[in-house]
Amino acid sequence: MPSHMVVVGIDGSPQSMAAADWAALEARRTGRPLRLVHAWHPLATDADYPLHAESRHRWVENRLSAVHQTLAERFPGLRIEVERVAEAPVKVLLAEEAELLVLGSRGLSGMSGHLLGSVSLSVIARTARPVVLVRADFDGRAEESGTVVLGLDLRHYGTAPIDFAFRAAAARGASLLVVHAWNPKLVYGYASAPLDEELTAELQEREERSLTGVLAPWRAKYPEVAVTGRVTAGSAGRVLIEAAGGAGLLVTGHQLDHPGHSSRIGHVTHGVLHHAACPVAVVPHDGAPDGDRDGGPAA
């Protein structure tokens, strides 16, 4: 079982510094300790250029000490640990006993460009715990006041992302927007004939009723959270990215077939990781079969 701790990976980059800020806010908000982890994989060239390796490690060490001191001053009373490990970052992060992993993201906003660290993608694909990706331009004030957005696929969902989103909204005193996107072409097929407006409206109502049914037990469990459900016909990735504009946190699920083994990151999750401007929480789950709409919270 993961320990009751927030772990953030630090590599000295601006995005990892922003991730440390987000992680400290989350640790304070939830009453959990914080661990700053710096892992590096010794390069073969380090033996040939020891001064270069020493300079690189000294630079990261200075950044690590600076962020530790800054967070200790900003969050008095917060328990902060520092861990340094000379091993591959992915291996170290996967071995961490943590309730939540936080990493920096170089993802780009907008709908073009693809730039995301291989460490982040590798960890997300293999870990059985939630991972939050934070961009370098993270604004803590916006995060504290912004809406929490949950992307929910009604045909393949798990309860873990739903619970994570409701708890995040409750902890922040924020509203929760639950977004489900459906594609009429998957119902009609890809024929060139125009879509039938009456049938489309009926299917839209069906999706809305399904979302209402899924959320009902969660509304009862978290009565303090103001929840809005939104069903939109269109590309799930684009719908989520647009819904997350100005949000404090975007939550999406990742179906993990075998914890500890790499599972393919779906195109929707992959898209929001690259393009969403706000922090993104990827919550692994075991999925639910098509048509299973009874995934409420445990009593």
Automatic annotation (TrEMBL):
InterPro entries: Rossmann-like_a/b/a_fold, Universal_stress_UspA, UspA. Residues 6-135, 147-284 form the UspA domain. Gene3D superfamilies: HUPs. It comes from the Bacteria. Belongs to the universal stress protein A family. PANTHER family: STRESS RESPONSE PROTEIN NHAX, UNIVERSAL STRESS PROTEIN UP12. This is Universal stress protein. It comes from Streptomyces xinghaiensis. The lineage of its organism: Bacteria, Bacillati, Actinomycetota, Actinomycetes, Kitasatosporales.
